[in-house]
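<amino_acid_chain>
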Amino acid sequence: MSNTLNVCGLTIERGQKLRTYLPVPDTNVQIPITIINGNDDGPTLLITAGIHGGEYPGIAAAMELGRDIEPEHVHGLLIMMHPVNIQGFWARREMIVPEDGKNLNRVFPGTPMGTLADKTAYLISSNFFPIADFYVDMHSGDIHESLHPYVYYPGQPTEEIEKKSRAVAKVLDMEYMVRSMAKGGAYNYAASTGLPSILIERGGAGLCLHEDIEAYKDDVRNILRKLKMFDRPVKPRHHTPRDVEDIIYLEAMETGCWFHHIHSGDFIEEGQELGRITDVFGKTITTYYAELTGVVLYVCPALSSPKGTVLVAYGRLKEDEDE
């Protein structure tokens, strides 16, 4: 990388830290951004937090890391946006951008001619993906999702991108990871352009717990060590992620009241009752059962469950393989 970064009208010299707002073109919206141009040369790591404004721990972690990390700590360039969906954040809205009702994570690469979500996605994909060497998208279970920590890595683009992404995913201190074959989402689009990427899920249900924030900060520090952007070696973890495959995202077949019998992180057996949907008088409409033996990644803890709500996400633990 060059000594000076010039991006979207912002200029950051080697050895400087900039904490400011990034305007979304043709809107009155500005995204909080921290850019740390390290004293020494190295890779560029892009981190986005709060693409969904109600997923708080990653946002708080990025805010605090941006405050605490100084250029003398870094080899290379660290760019963090916190939160990206600033309007959804202040409105306490789950998933969507309030102005247009769109799920920002579903519109990448975006377009400069669209609504706020489209313009935000385009701003990131056209200006920041091309300059990054690795991309981390920080999520949580949303306001209506109770989640056990795990990480997605892309399985679609090329074997090289998958391998680079997975190698970084494995330095996180969490039990599970998922090879994503989806094409949607910021990190999957980034991977399709040749940018190794991961999406981390930690925390959820509208909570911003100290332990989740600190764990997220440890995640990022270990990623910086893995990318050799910090001098110290990768910190030992309590867990190394194992692959979960054959993921089932169980959706509500009707609008009703959801009573679940399992929790995120639980192990379940094929045929086990997961929960039931009732009407507002408590009469059972549908009972849902596990289609396979595996682990629960997240569950909807809300009683109110409109049709199409993901009630439970679960999958099968893959047999360990030598790597």
